[in-house]
Amino acid sequence: MLIVSHRLLIGAVAAHGRGCSDPAAIFRDASAFRLNPRPPLGHTTPGQIMTDDHADEKLLPYESEPERQIRYRFAHLLASTPIPPDELGDNLTLYLRRQPLTDLLSLDALYRMVLDVPGVIMEFGVHRGRHLAALTALRGAYEPYHPHRRIIGFDTFTGFPDVTAIDATNPSAVPGRFSLTDSYVLHLRDVLATHEAAEHLGHIRRTLIFEGDVRETLPCYLTDNPHTVIALAYFDLDLYEPTRHTIDALKPYLTRGSVLAFDQLAHAKWPGETAALRDAVGIGNCSLRCLPGRATPVYLRWGE
Question: Which fold has domain 98-304?
Fold first, then answer.
């Protein structure tokens, strides 16, 4: 994830550009960002019987308090940056933490895997659009004259449409989770169009967003584009049903060597993605791989 949400970043840059005397004021006090205090790990109240190991938060990955405070600190530093607005975009790596840097390096590694594979790149679960923007920039670096390398994002932008029983084990898995405002979607389209305008083939629209339930929008896209071959598919849908449906829909459009990457595979908090791959493909029928030293994404090469 980025060091701060795009909304906070945009607000900070806008405030700085307007000459706001205290751009950091657009951020709430760090304490307002904190989650509710956690009970002691493994603690049970009188009469409570732990029948599920997942009741012990120590078994699940989560952000530590020092990590959280560092993230807030960088958010404050970015909001109060002395860097002029016209130079800020070229200096954002000054505030880039290890985690988002690792994410960018992972995308770079995945992109390089498919340089010799024809077809489009798809992301399922766009949210703020950081991956779409990064992939568009990588296309400009590695394949500036490739007219057929579309980068396509699918998202409801209104959050999870529904949740099944296997996903409900995570209290964050509720309908509407990760919803964004209509104005943000418009902003994202503007950002991506600006990225494309800087490309050598900027007159060809090659980065696309499809808004709505992927179970409806993806079949429509594939029907309208029967020439589709998929080089890279990045899954960040979190939930079982849309992930399973998407894998099934993509199968006829994959070629040997296509890369399928999963953001929450083998993740205890989000079991639906793993279950979807197991049911759609069979984990024993493919070789799952991690990038060296990184827990996510997990990827496979189709047919290999």
Answer: Rossmann fold (3.40.50)
